[in-house]
Amino acid sequence: QVQLVESGGGLVQAGGSLRLSCAFSGRPFTLYTMAWFRQAPGNEREFVAYISWSGRDTFYADSVKGRFTVSRDNTANTVSLRMDSLKPEDTAIYYCAAELNQSSLRTTVATLYDHWGPGTQVTVAS
């Protein structure tokens, strides 16, 4: 059974940086596309970043493009999200998600992801 566990969240000042990590276990990691989503209080869960099973393709929400970088280590079975130039509006619970997908289709819809971690809180103070 696939399990995802996020880590690395916390409190940071605006303009600062954080690096989130997600540990994957339970099935061969390279069968899965990975993504990061976030959810702020009162808002729906929104797409943040996508990375293909190979790591060669990435895609970002417009709101984070140029500030966030997603990467994966297929040896260590981890996916990371480097967040720079953080803004108060980036405050949310961040979730990693896995989709059984080895195609080139970039999936940005939360309901299409099969597995989710419990989330990690990121708070950006102004």
How do the helices and strands line up, and which of them pair or pack?
Layout (H helix, E strand, L loop, with lengths): L2 E5 L2 E4 L4 E8 L6 E8 L6 E6 L6 E3 L7 E6 L4 E6 L8 E9 L14 E2 L3 E6 L1
Structure description:
By secondary structure, the protein is mainly beta. The chain has strands spanning 3-7, 10-13, 18-25, 32-39, 46-51, 58-60, 68-73, 78-83, 92-100, 115-116, 120-125. Strands 2, 4, 5, 6, 9, 10 and 11 form a seven-stranded mixed beta sheet that branches. Strand 4 (32-39) and strand 5 form a beta hairpin. It starts with a strand and ends with a strand. 33% of the residues are buried. The mean pLDDT is 96.
Keywords, please?
11 strands, 7-stranded mixed β-sheet, globular, 126 residues, 50% strand, mainly beta, 4-stranded antiparallel β-sheet
Question: What's this entry about, in short?
Answer:
The protein has 126 residues and is an all-beta fold.
